[in-house]
């Protein structure tokens, strides 16, 4: 049975804890932080903010979400993908509530093609987002550290994430944390409206017998 994220304080100066999502928090607040961080990517796929929020809310798997919390306020979130289950699962039937069957079909398969396959021994970080008012405090770093610890405690072999070519600062941060580039994927003009043309797939290998 998998070990959940243990509640953990960042340091003695901050009252921020890393916890597993629970029903004491509003999905809407998680989605607000997520949408603000990835607005350009999301609007390239779903133009309407209202539709996007509604679709994602119906598609959330909250057992794949960890939170950074300060005084009961969400300051950041990480959405995970492992054991064939992602933190969002946007399916054809959900899309068909908002779009024609044909458009829903192409949107669904476009999403499937953009989502990497995750091996059994891998925990993938699909998304990391920090509230605008809390950025620059190391919260994203601590969320990633918590995911690495979760993977280690549950005997996964690696943590995987993607970073786009237009976010070089994030790539440098991940490298400092021990992630290495596994490969670069080029999308060329297909993702231009989303603000990038390629992404790096990066991996953190968990040492054997490190549990």
Question: What are its keywords?
Answer:
34% helix, alpha+beta, 211 residues, globular
Description of the structure:
- This protein has seven helices and nine strands; from the N terminus they run E-E-H-H-H-E-E-E-H-H-E-H-E-H-E-E.
- Strands 1, 2, 3, 4, 5, 6, 7, 8 and 9 form a nine-stranded mixed beta sheet that branches.
- It has a single domain, classed as 3-Layer(aba) Sandwich (Aminopeptidase).
- It is an alpha+beta fold and 211 residues long.
- 30% of the residues are buried.
- The radius of gyration is 17 Å and the shape is globular.
- The longest helix has 15 residues.
- Helix 1 crosses helix 3.
- The two termini are 15 Å apart.
User: How would you classify the helix and strand content by structural class?
Assistant: alpha+beta
The CATH homologous superfamily is named: Gcn5-related N-acetyltransferase (GNAT)
User: If helices are DSSP runs of H or I spanning 4 or more residues, what is the number of helices?
Assistant: 7
Backbone shape: globular
Uncertain segments are: 9-13
CATH C-level category = Alpha Beta
Alpha-carbon distance between the termini? 15 Å
Largest sheet: 9 strands, mixed
Number of domains: 1
Estimate the helix proportion, in percent: 25-40%
Radius of gyration: 17 Å
Beta-strand proportion: 25-35%
| Name of the CATH architecture | 3-Layer(aba) Sandwich
Elements, N to C (H/E):
EEHHHEEEHHEHEHEE
Average pLDDT level: 88
CATH topology term: Aminopeptidase
Beta-strand segment tally: 9
